[in-house]
Amino acid sequence: MTPTPLPDLTEHLGPAPFRFTPKHETVASPAFSLPFKVLAVSLLLGLAFWAYQLHGPQMAQTDYLWLWAAWGIMAYTVGHLLLGKTRLTSQTLEQTWIWHKKVELRDLAYVKLIRVPGLDAVIAPRLYARTLMGKFTVIYACSPEMIDEFKRLGAELKEFRSMR
């Protein structure tokens, strides 16, 4: 005797969650543009040159060590900036950076694309995302394909949430 499958009880638990389908199964983008990365590395190297020139009899050894410690933290940040990637699937929006950011699309309450058109190369476009629980995350991306997906995601989410 074959057991009867149980009915799906999740349909009675509330409205359906938000669903989004990217144009491709997975859309990936560097988090920051090449000009932005070049600017960050240039500033970091300029600061290293400046810090190197400061060392002399007028600066105490401990002050010099603190200066290089601060530079090391900046170098760590720039290293992650160079390697950061953003990924969008039908389930999640993720970004690797100093810490891994991940937002489940079904939990999204609000998104807004923040950018300065024409200056995307030096002012990184970002998606401000807030979940139903009030948690917010900022996700950076630089490829035009990802920015178009962010726009579409925002429009579809706004339409979905306004139907309620």
Give me the side-by-side strand order of the main sheet: 1-2-3-4
Q: Estimate percent helicity.
A: 25-40%
Strand content range: 15-25%
pLDDT < 50 runs, ≥5 residues: none
What is the N-to-C order of secondary-structure elements (H for helix, E for strand)?
EHHEEEEEEH
Mean pLDDT: 88
Largest sheet: 4 strands, antiparallel
* Discrete helix count: 3
Termini distance?
44 Å
Total number of beta strands = 7
Gross geometry: elongated
Name the structural class: alpha+beta
Global Rg: 22 Å
Offer a concise description of the structure.
With 164 residues, this protein is an alpha+beta fold. It has 3 helices and 7 strands.
Describe the protein's architecture and organization.
This protein is an alpha+beta fold and 164 residues long. Helices cover 38% and strands 21% of the residues. The protein has three helices and seven strands, in the order E-H-H-E-E-E-E-E-E-H. The strands form two sheets. Strands 1-2-3-4 form a four-stranded antiparallel beta sheet, with helices on one face. A three-stranded antiparallel beta sheet has the order 5-6-7. The radius of gyration is 22 Å and the shape is elongated. The two termini are 44 Å apart.
